[in-house]
Every structure is written in C-alpha cells, then in structure tokens.
Specification:
By secondary structure, the chain is an alpha/beta fold. Helices cover 42% and strands 11% of the residues. α1 crosses α10, α12 packs across α14 and α17 crosses α19. The chain binds one RNA strand of 75 nucleotides through α4, β8, β9, α5 and α9.
Length: 490
RNA sequence: GGAGCUAUCGUCUAACGGUUAGGACAGCGCCCUUUCAAGGCGCUUGUACGGGUUCGAAUCCCGUUAGCUCUACCA
C-alpha cells in the first residue's frame, strides 16, 4: 500500500467543459502538485447517448488550455492511446472490469438480479407517493416487494441491484465538510447495472463504475463537486463490499451564478472555451477559480492588499490544503476575473503578450517587426483588461476610420487645431525623439495645449477620442500612414 | 415529501468566545493626467431571523426562514 497521493478529474463528455468542472479539477490538480502526487483525467462515458469523440476532445482541449496537465489519461498527442498504467481511461472501454466485479458481488450475495420492469417500478413509485412517502426500492412500504431475496438467475432480462445495508448510519468523513451521517434507511437498493438481455450484465451506472475505477486507478483522494455528497453513502458500502479501503473524500463547494443558481450559460460565459475566446489568460482563470471558497495563506497570512491578491501557480500550490477550503458555495464574479486578468496582463512580458495576442489579431500582426510589436504591446498592456480588448485598442493600426462624427469634428478639428495638424504633416524627423521635439515645437508655435492637439489628432487619425498616448499612436501608424489619414484634414 | 449541505458588505472573503467587524473586486468622490487606462487618497454598504449558553457570541447549541444538492436503468 503506497502513500502516493493520486487525484483525478472525471468529467462526462457533454459537449463543453464547464468552469465549475475546471475549478474542481484545479483543486485536484493543486492537491496532487502540492503532495508530489499524480493527477488523472478519466472520461466518464457510461451514458452512451451523450458521449462522442468530439466531446472528449473538447474536454482534453479545455484542460490543456487551462494548464491542468494530467499524468494519466488520454494521450493528447496520440488519439486512442493512454498515458499511465491503469488505462484505459474511458469507462466505456472498461466493461470487462466492471462485469467481473459484479460477478464477484453476485458470488458473495451482495448484488442481485432484479426483474422489476420500468412499468412495475413506476406503479410502485406512484403508490408510494400517493401515500405521501418517497419511493425507495425495497425500503419503506416497498420493503420485501422487490427481487432482493428471490435469487433470480439470468435466464430472463434483468438489471442488477446492490444490496445496501438495512438500518444504522453510513458515515462519511469528509476532508472538507467533516463528518456527515446518513441514515441507511434514507437510501435504497440502487441499480448498479442497467437492464440487459438474458445471460448478460448491462452497462454499469456511474455510482458503480466510479468506485471500481477509483480503486483500480489507486486514487487516494476523491476530490469532487458538492453535488456528489449525497452519492457517497451509496458508494461507501460498495467500497466495503468489494473489500476496498476507502479513499479520502473531499467535496468542494459549488460555483453559483449571480442569482445563486448553479452557474450556466444564462449567466454569460460558463464553458472554458468562452473564457478563452473572451481573451482571458489561463493563469487568470486559475487564480480566480482557486480563490473561490479557498483563501490562500502566504506565510500564514491572507492577502491584505491588492498586490498580495495576485499569486503565482507556485504560490497557489505551496499554499494549498484541503482544510482551508470553505464549506459554503460561492458566486462567480466575472468582474474579479477581469481585474485579475488586467493585473496579470500588466505584469506579463511583451514577448508573452505578443504571442498570446496572435489569435485575436488580423494576419498582418504576424508580419510586423519586433520593435513595432513591442511598442504596440507596451502602450496597450496597461489599458486592457483582456487580450481581446488589447487587440481592439490596436485595431486602428490596420483599420482607417471610415466615418467621422460631426460632433467630434466640430469640437476637435477646429481651424486652429487643423493648422497645427498641417505643420505636423510637414515634419521630417519621425524618430521617437524627433517626433517629440517636433510636436513640442508645433505646440509652441501655434500656442495650443498638448491635450487639444492630441485629441484633434486622435479624431483625425482614428475617428475616435480614445487611443494610446499620442506619440505612440503616431509612431504605430508610421509617417506614411499618418500623412495618408491626415490628407482630408489639411 | 425524505436525506444532506449552506448562511459576514452587491460579490469574494478575514476575524484563539473579547477587533471601532479587517482586506479585495465592484460602485461613488477627489488627486494625478494627453484621451482611455494605470496609480494615489477617501467614502458608502455586512454578521438572515428568533431563542439559549456565557461576564462577554459573527464565532458554541437549538429552532425558524431561505438557497442549493441528492432522492434516475444521468453523471
């Protein structure tokens, strides 16, 4: 029995990677890193209707973009092959293992064939509900009416149920939530394998395969969403029936939207791809998510200033521990993400930003020389919350204004400002220093203030009143383009 | 209906049972200023409710209310 920490993220391929899933994965990832353990990505695709290759790809790409790399799981380089020794990491490919475990349970009398049809179950459910009781298979007024003691063989179609303990409590020792007690009689004999033809064992359900896989993959810490708390008392007796020792369970609180409902598309972005397309940095997403329901303590202290809120991955990993995670859910506030993203952009190197900006830029971006890109990035990195905004604030470089608002023309392109613009048009020295001197001279000669000339130039050159500082705006456009755009105003 | 979880500014959160209930985001105001930002300074707003325990409760206990999760041959 090794003491190696192994965590896993086990999403089902539903067509998108949800931000809440990423947060859960992040905690599992941080915990593995913190303890020099291993992190597994496993695909839970026992619901064959929803699981497609494309949907699995979406999960892999989302995880990769988020920077949550896995030690075991699908090999992103080679489709269909696996990283790690406990594969395959798709449940649909592990049927043989599940079936052999179910056979084991049969042999020990801990599982049984159930011939109750959906129709008869539905009828009993209604009967229970009519008398104000919830329906539980082989519990309450349904007790003794099922197949538990009938010892059915597989000669007829059947599903498979797990014989849950009767009476007493099931205790969950949760690393985050503490001890939680569930009365056994609030549960029932649940289905572990779906309906199947005679002689067969059907496709196992989630609660069964998750237990078998977590043990087979030597998962030491099951870190998952709060929505699984109520599943755990079903799973605990199954671990025991299979002779397994229990992993450590840690249920992390949910992430809610502004209306305190589970976060979804209705709240704006919910899938990780949307955050990427909005121009957020993966690190900003990680930091923001990490700080929901968890407060990192650096040297035993929580952040006491804005600067201390901005933490590196290394600091996150170093500070991480399960005990500090909150037990209450938290609302996802995209404003905080915007703020963190902006801070991170400001702190980023120009080189990193140049590269990160590529997907948001027109193709001409790639052909610009390094000095120009450096200038472009350095004069916009403090004025953009996202990469997308950064790209937008540089759009004037390749998009000459087509229309000019009358109001702006009247206000800024006055005769005196235009005469200064005419002088600018005659400037010869377009080196940064030459331009600076030239502008100073023009301001002096025309007796106008920099802010007036700057605004007039912004309108003339970009069609708007917002652009990088005016020297940089001129330099980015370049002598030739500036002259071209000034033509109609002189 | 049953089982479970949760409850501090609008949001994220801090607070050995003793603090003027602290910080961050957002909002607002002022300063700086070449537009927009960034930066600086300041302000507004909070312990869900009701009972206990205690010299003393945001903190411990009970109840209420509200929200969420599970209650599937979904995961």
């Amino acid at each position: 029995m090794s003491s190696l920490v192994v965590t896993r993220f086990a999403p089902s391929p539903t067509g998108m990677l949800h931000i809440g899933g990423v947060r859960t994965a992040l905690f599992a990832w941080l915990f593995a890193k913190k303890n020099s353990g291993r992190f597994i990505l496993r695909i839970e695709d026992t619901d064959t209707d929803r699981s497609t290759e494309d949907n699995i790809r979406i999960i892999e790409e989302g995880m990769l973009w988020s920077g949550l790399d896995w030690d075991e799981g699908p090999d992103p380089q080679h489709l269909g092959s696996w990283l790690g020794d406990h594969g395959p990491y798709r449940q649909i490919l592990r049927m043989d293992i599940y079936k052999s475990k179910i056979t084991e349970l049969f042999d020990q009398g801990k599982a049984y064939r159930c011939r109750c049809t959906k129709e008869s179950l539905e009828e009993r459910r209604k009967e229970s509900e009519r008398s104000g009781k919830p329906f539980q298979y082989n519990r309450g007024m349904d007790f003794g009416r099922g197949c538990r003691d009938k010892h059915h063989d597989d000669s007829l179609p059947s599903s498979v149920r797990f014989a849950m303990p009767l009476g007493g409590d099931i205790i969950l020792e949760d690393a985050i939530k503490g001890m939680i007690k569930f009365p056994s009689d609030s549960l029932d004999d649940w289905i572990i394998a779906r309906w199947s033809e005679p002689g067969e064992i059907g496709v196992p359900t989630y609660n069964f395969s998750v237990v078998v896989d977590d043990v087979a993959m030597k998962v030491s810490h099951v870190i998952r969403g709060d929505d699984h708390v109520a599943n755990t008392p079903k799973q605990i007796p199954l671990f025991e029936a299979l002779g397994y020792t229990l992993p450590v369970f840690a249920h992390v609180p949910m992430i809610l939207g502004k209306d305190k409902q589970k976060l979804s598309k209705r709240h704006g972005a919910a899938s990780i791809t949307e955050f990427k397309d909005l121009g957020f940095l993966a690190q900003a997403v990680r930091l923001t998510l990490a700080k929901l329901s968890w407060t990192p303590k650096i040297d035993g202290k929580v952040a006491e200033s804005a600067e201390e809120e901005i933490l590196s991955d290394a600091q996150l990993i170093d500070a991480f521990n399960l005990e500090d995670i909150q037990t209450s859910p938290s609302v996802f506030d995209i404003d905080k993400l915007y703020w963190i993203n902006q801070k991170l952009i400001m702190n980023s190197t120009n080189e990193f930003l140049m590269k990160s900006l590529e997907p948001f830029m027109p193709s001409v971006w790639q052909t610009q020389d390094i000095a120009w890109k450096n200038l472009a990035v350095s004069c916009t990195k403090e004025r953009s919350r996202t990469l997308k905004e950064m790209a937008q604030s540089l759009a004037f470089c390749w998009e000459a204004p087509q229309i000019f608002e009358e109001k702006l023309i009247i206000k800024h392109l006055t005769e005196s400002n235009r005469s200064a613009i005419r002088s600018l048009n005659l400037l010869e020295d377009w080196t940064p220093q030459g331009l600076r001197d030239g502008l100073d001279r023009i301001l002096f000669e025309h007796k106008i203030a920099l802010k007036d000339l700057a605004q007039a130039l912004r309108v003339a050159l970009t069609g708007g009143t917002i652009s990088p500082p005016i020297h940089e705006t001129l330099l980015l456009l370049g002598e030739e383009e500036v002259r071209r755009r000034l033509l109609r105003w002189i």
